[in-house]
């Protein structure tokens, strides 16, 4: 047996993409996966420590762990005309130095937010607490992520879509990178290739058996949302475009990392292709 720690968030899209494996619908080639569910910012922080073999991460923090982790091509989430939302109370006018609640220092939305609103004063909290913090006036505004973007208090309205921030910063024609997976470089390359292929198959099977998987996730109370809202959310963040990175998605990641370099968030520019598991090794191994 080859035990592998697989850390992901408890959000519906992550649960959906990994539980086809947990339910035994995918050949795991002798590997056993230990599912570890933690919120995305905790996963980002743990990735900085090198804690888990395979971990969900925010794309915006990957350059900080590139020497310890390779990027995986699968279980990716991008926005296409949508994404996190900056919300405020309808009776509130934001000043330049407004106080804003963000879901974590290392999240992609926080990276883009800080570039776009350099004078704002971020405070960081669990994403489930952000809506109430804005409603109660603890903060002037907040960035909603995950399923909270679909339904929020009627006293609130959208000040700015992070999608629009992305388009203004990156230009048109590119999807908004949000999150993906990374694998520890200390794992042998042949094992890393196996694990990536198993995860790719898991996301593929999840999409092929979406209705069945959603019903099972709801029946076992593994997701926070259900019914039509669950399907809508998964269509946004866990679809066929999540199975394997496309050329366009890689181009979007390159632009994200270029923006981070230009704004001094990391010391050297990076190109995504250089940090993926090399597919040519598998071709040579099987030739």
Automatic annotation (TrEMBL):
A Pfam family recorded for this sequence: VitK2_biosynth
UniProt function note: Catalyzes the conversion of cyclic dehypoxanthine futalosine (cyclic DHFL) into 1,4-dihydroxy-6-naphthoate, a step in the biosynthesis of menaquinone (MK, vitamin K2).
Keywords attached to this entry: Ligase, Lyase, Menaquinone biosynthesis
Taxonomy of the source species: Bacteria, Pseudomonadati, Campylobacterota, Epsilonproteobacteria, Campylobacterales
Protein name, UniProt field: 1,4-dihydroxy-6-naphtoate synthase
Coiled-coil regions listed in the entry: none
Organism listed in the record: Sulfurovum xiamenensis
Single annotated GO MF: ligase activity
EC numbers, comma separated: 4.1.99.29
Lipid biosynthesis recorded as keyword: no
Pathway the protein contributes to: Quinol/quinone metabolism; menaquinone biosynthesis
Reaction(s) catalysed by this chain's protein: cyclic dehypoxanthinylfutalosinate = 1,4-dihydroxy-6-naphthoate + dihydroxyacetone
Matches recorded under HAMAP family: MqnD
């Amino acid at each position: 047996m080859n035990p592998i720690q697989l850390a992901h968030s408890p959000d519906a899209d992550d649960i959906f993409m990994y539980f086809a494996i947990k339910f035994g619908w995918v050949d795991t080639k002798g590997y056993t996966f230990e599912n570890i569910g933690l919120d995305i910012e905790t996963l980002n922080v743990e990735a900085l420590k090198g804690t888990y073999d395979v971990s969900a991460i925010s794309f915006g923090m990957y350059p900080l762990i590139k020497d310890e982790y390779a990027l995986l091509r699968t279980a990716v989430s991008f926005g296409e005309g949508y994404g996190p939302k900056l919300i405020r109370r309808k009776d509130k006018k934001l000043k330049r130095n407004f106080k804003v609640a963000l879901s974590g220092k290392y999240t992609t939305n926080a990276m883009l937010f800080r570039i776009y609103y350099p004078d704002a004063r971020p405070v960081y909290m669990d994403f489930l607490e952000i809506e109430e913090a804005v409603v109660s006036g603890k903060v002037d505004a907040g960035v909603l992520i995950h399923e909270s973007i679909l339904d929020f208090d009627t006293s609130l309205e959208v000040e700015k879509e992070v999608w629009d921030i992305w388009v203004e910063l990156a230009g048109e024609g590119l999807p908004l990178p949000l999150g993906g997976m990374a694998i520890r470089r200390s794992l042998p390359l042949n094992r890393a290739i196996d694990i990536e292929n198993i995860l790719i198959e898991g996301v593929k099977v999840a999409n092929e058996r979406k209705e069945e998987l959603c019903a099972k996730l709801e029946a076992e109370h593994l997701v926070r949302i259900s019914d039509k809202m669950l399907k809508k959310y998964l269509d946004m963040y866990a679809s066929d475009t999540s199975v394997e990175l496309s050329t366009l998605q890689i181009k979007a990641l390159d632009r994200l990392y270029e923006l981070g370099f230009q704004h001094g968030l990391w010391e050297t520019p990076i190109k995504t292709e250089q940090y993926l598991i090399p597919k040519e090794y598998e071709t040579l191994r099987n030739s």
